[in-house]
Each structure stands twice: as structure tokens, then as C-alpha cells.
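Reviewer 2 asked us to include a model.

Predict the structure of this chain.
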Amino acid sequence: MKQLRPAVLVGIFVVAGVLSWAGARLWDAYGILPGVPLAAPVVLAVIAAVLLATALSLRSRLRAQRERRPGAKGVEPLMAARAAVFAQASALVAALVAGMYGGTGVFLLTEYLDVPARRDQAWYAGFSVLAGAAVVAAALFLEHVLKLPEDDEDSPEATARA
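Predicted model (C-alpha cells):
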């Protein structure tokens, strides 16, 4: 399984933001601009907390296993694979959702700053972008924790030395 590259996540964020901004302008032209829910940043923050807790737990278990501490509980390979998939999926979805709320927030800030309800929704969108960035950071940290050490015999430098 390949590790996620931050450039891909930034690209998803930017494309989703531009499309969301354009969609918000279109919906506003028809008078049906949807709101930004208050629960959006809360849900993203909960996902970031779960990812971070998983990463810290697995890191301590892997460290204890490497140091061969007595009574150390190892990490099952299938559980590690599931955690890695959870991290990648969460990062991709969070980049998409943060981009969508970012584009909507920019539209609300530029067009409806004087309307108190829309200004509050712009705040919710901004907090959603921050919480989405926290999800991406926690997911990348979890991927880093689960990364297998490189095998020296299969690396190009080891082949060149032989």
C-alpha cells in the first residue's frame, strides 16, 4: 500500500474549494444557497481525535514490541492494515470536505459578511477547514507510525554496494 502524498491532498482541497465556490455562486443565483451545519467541525474534530488516539496507541504498542518488553501486546498485521486504510480514507475525505467548506466559506465571506446568520455559517465553514486539516494531519501521522522500516537488502544502495 502506497503512502499518501500531501500534494495529492492539497490538490483535492483546492479543486473541491474552487468547485464549491462556483457551486455556491450558482446556487445563490437561484436563491437556494444551503447552509453550513454547526455539526460539521465537530464531526471532523471527533474523527481527528480518533485517528490521533489510534496513532498514539499503536505507536506505544509497536515501540514496546520492538524493545521486546515483557508482556508487550503486539499489533496484529490485519489491524495495522485496517488502521492504515482508515487513515488514508479519512485523509482523502477530509481534504474533499474541507475544500468544499472552504469554498463555501470564501463565498460567504465575500458576499454575505453583513448578514449575521451567513457570517456565523462562514465561521462554521472556517472551523470545518481547520478540523479537516487536523484530520489530515492525524491521518498522515498514523500512516507514519504504521510505516514499515525499509529493508536494507532490497534498497538500490544495497544492490549497488554488492
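The CA atoms of residues 14 and 116 lie 27 Å apart. The chain has a mean pLDDT of 87. We have added this to the supplementary material.
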